[in-house]
Amino acid sequence: MIDKIKKNKVLELPDWVSNQMKEIIKWMMNNNENHRPTTKMILSHDTVLMYLRSCESHKQLQQDNINALKERDQINEERIQDRIENYRVILERNGLQSDSERAFAERDRERIEKDRLQIELNRQIQERNGFQSDNERALAERDRERIEKDRLTEIQRLQAETSKLRPQTTSSNQQSKSEPKVQQIQQQVPPSLNPNMLVGIIPDIEDAYQQGIKIIRTDKYGPSTIAFDPIISNGIVRFGGFFERHSNIYNFMIGIADSSAVFGSNEGPRSGENDQKTVCYWSG
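Predicted structure:
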């Protein structure tokens, strides 16, 4: 390039280059280096100054755009924080108010977390011990069938016994015309129900579950109602049980329910329409 400049064989500048810029370039390409402009002279030239100002303006514009974006992001962040704060205030205003309610909520969260950990532990134990063999499942199915068969047999026996206890009318046809009918009911107390045939009707195993002849309460705080088969249409049935480690804080009830009563999860025996279908006795 230097040789071309010395021999003046450089290409012509394009037409779009301004005359002033052409002069600067030719001045810079002078064969005599003593006649070339200094850096200060080049930078002080109007065309160069205009270009530098243009570059500076462009750079300032970019910085202004960056600052504007930062400011917009900060405003958006402040708006988000305001929404979060408003939402928190609404939750506090509409949420739990009393210390007692907050304590119940915390206790429920702890119970849920404990149940979750127990479920996870049970799952790990099941994975570690594997699935039951076909023989074990067959034995379990056979036991269920035997229990169901015994239950049906006991129900039939009770129905046969109670059918003998129906009221008998001692009056004759002539006596019925002159005086009211007198019903003499002879009833006998049948033996206790076979514990093996008692099947608890449990709405949700998270409230309670049956283990053999035991009913184990899972939810230590919420209400839970359990009914038992079989359904008794008439006669007298003796039913007994024992409470183990019962807390004195909460009451318990025992009673008789109509066969149409359906008890839901986390409900007492007198909830809703069941109030007209149950007779309950309170512990306190």
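Summary: Residues 63 and 150 are 88 Å apart (CA to CA).
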